[in-house]
Predict the structure.
Amino acid sequence: MNWTMKRYDPAPFWNVPHEWPAQTAFIVAGGPSVLQQDLELLRGRNVIAINSSIYAVPWAQFLYFGDYRWWDEEANRNAIERYQGRTVTTSRLVRHPKVMICQKTNPPGLALQCDSLMQRYTSLTAATNLAAHLVGPGGTIVWLGADGKHAADGRTHHHVPHRWYSKPGCYDQQLTDLVTIVPSLKQLRISAFNASPGTAWHELLPAVDLEEMVGKQRAA
């Protein structure tokens, strides 16, 4: 099949529903610290997987990818064909009946329109924006795998590495966008936490233990 690099302009863009009102959304990003987590704790909860994290949590309700290069790999397209949840992107190069496209906005801050997601240097901002639309005021967002660094052994991801390499300074670039969403979350009255052991982004969001966080949700 010829996957032509042709921009697709959907009209209208997909509107994210307010589907998890005042609930907790867990976002599984790609950082190596995910290997230290018991992901079974998330089964049955509100979960968004970012690109290849879908292989670790195939039962997640949402899959978000922002990079066409990820979609361009046949194994990933096949995974989406098998996936039972909903797939969302901001890439206008994608045209597929199982992929919903939102409008991409630039930083600073999260996009407030429910058909838009903010992304520039990292899919984590867009996935957080997706979660914010889903949970709304009074909701909570918890990051996993938001490490902001490589592991001590040089590992870059908890899953099979992407075929493209991380550029020097990429985490600093990502941080410049991530810091701008913190005021947005406060404005939206959404609590956000980072459950990524050893994260380099410890000053961005309060650090929490995943097991304790899930325990609190069960007790609520």
The chain has one domain: 24-219. Residues 170-187 form the longest helix (18 residues). Residues 24-219 form a domain with the sialyltransferase cstii, chain A fold (CATH 3.90.1480.10).
